[in-house]
Write a structure and sequence with these properties.
2 copies of one chain form a homodimer. By secondary structure, chain A is an alpha+beta fold. The first copy, chain A, has 6 helices and 5 strands, in the order H-H-H-H-E-E-E-E-H-E-H. The longest helix of chain A has 19 residues. Chain A starts with a helix and ends with a helix. The relative contact order of chain A is 0.11. At the A-B interface, helix 5, strand 5 and helix 6 of A face helix 5, strand 5 and helix 6 of B. Chain A binds a DNA duplex (25 and 25 nucleotides) through helix 4.
Chain lengths: 162, 162
DNA sequence: GTCAGTGCAAACTTTTTGCAACTAC
DNA sequence: GTAGTTGCAAAAAGTTTGCACTGAC
C-alpha cells in the first residue's frame, strides 16, 4: 500500500470514528492526521507543532494537537511511547511491527525485528481483552556502555590490589 | 528468598556499584534502597517521598530521590516505567517476570504472566547488546470499554437507519 | 580538609485547563 | 442557533538545576 492509499484509508477510519463518537469533522483534525501520516518514525508534540507551522498547511495550537492525538489514539491510528521525559508518538496503521532496544545507561533507542518474538506475542491468548497492539522495550547495555563499565571495574580492582 | 535476604543482597550489590563508580555510601541512599524494596508493585517519586516522610525512618528531599533512583536504575536494581504522565518505578531484583496489559481507552494497567511469551523473549539473541530486562506493554480494549464502544456504534447505526 | 552529596527553592518543560471566539452540524 | 472545538494564556504537574551547607572519605 502506498503512502497516499494509507492516508486515504486512515482518513476514512478517522471519519467513521468521529461520526460514531459524536465528534465534529474539523479541518484541523484532518490536517493533523495527514501530517502525522507523513512522518516516518517517532515524533513528539513539539516536533509535530513546528512541522505544521513550517509547512504552513494548517496552523493549529498545541492544545489542539494534544486534544486530537487523544482521539487518534482512541481510534487506534496512533500509538504513544514514553521514552525519556517527553511523550513520543508514531502512526500505527500499516506500520511494520518492530520492537525497541534501549540502553539502560545511555538511553539510546534502536528498533529491531524478530519474527519468532512477534508470533509469540501475537499468539498469546487473552480473555476479556481485545488486543490492538503492543510495545516491547528491551533494556540492557549497549556494547559501548558495557565496555565503559568494564574499564571502570578494572580500574577499581587495580586500585584495590595496590 | 525472603524479603530480608533480598534487602541484604541488593544492599551488597548497591554498595559494590557505589564503590566501583566512585560514589559515596550515604545513609540517604541506603534508606531509599531499603524503602523501595519494602514496596510491592509500582510507585512514583511522590509516593516514595510521602512514604519515607510518613515512616520517619529517614527524611530525604525529592531531589535526592531523583538522584538516587538514577543510580539504582544504573545498578539494575530498579526499573522505570512510563505509563501515563508520571514515571513509575519498581524493584527489579528477585521480582517475578510479568507483563503489562493496558486499556488504550481507560488507561487501566493490569499485570499478567505467560510462560511461552517469557521464554520467547528471553531466548531472543542480541548481538552487541547485553540484555538485562524487558517490559512488554500490551494495548487493547478491556471488556468494559469494548462493551461501551459497541453500544455507541449501535446507537449510531440506529440513528442512521431512521 | 576536600569535594561529592544533600535540602531547599527557583527554574524549566511538558501537559492540562479556563474562557472567549468560532464554526460544524 | 447551539453546543463542540479552537486558540491563547495561565496554571498545574513533574523533573531538573543552582547554591549554600553538610558530612563521607
Amino acid at each position: 500500500m502506498d503512502k497516499q492509499q494509507v492516508k486515504d484509508t486512515v482518513k476514512k477510519i478517522f471519519t467513521e470514528y468521529l461520526k460514531v463518537n459524536g465528534h465534529r469533522k474539523t479541518p484541523e483534525r484532518f490536517a493533523i492526521l495527514d501530517t502525522i501520516y507523513s512522518i516516518d518514525g517517532h515524533f513528539d508534540i513539539d516536533t509535530l507543532y513546528l512541522l505544521m507551522v513550517e509547512q504552513e498547511k494548517f496552523r493549529v495550537s498545541r492544545a489542539t494537537l494534544y486534544n486530537t492525538i487523544i482521539l487518534l489514539i482512541n481510534a487506534q491510528l496512533v500509538i504513544k511511547h514514553q521514552f525519556g521525559n517527553t511523550s513520543q508518538y508514531e502512526k500505527s496503521y500499516n506500520r511494520d511491527t518492530h520492537h525497541h532496544r534501549i540502553c539502560a545507561q545511555c538511553g539510546t533507542v534502536t528498533e529491531f525485528q524478530d519474527a519468532a518474538l512477534q508470533s509469540a506475542i501475537e499468539n498469546t491468548k487473552f480473555t476479556g481483552f481485545h488486543l490492538s497492539h503492543y510495545t516491547l522495550y528491551v533494556y540492557g547495555l549497549c556494547a559501548k556502555c558495557e565496555r565503559a563499565n568494564k574499564r571502570k571495574l578494572k580500574k577499581y580492582n587495580h586500585k584495590k590490589e595496590k
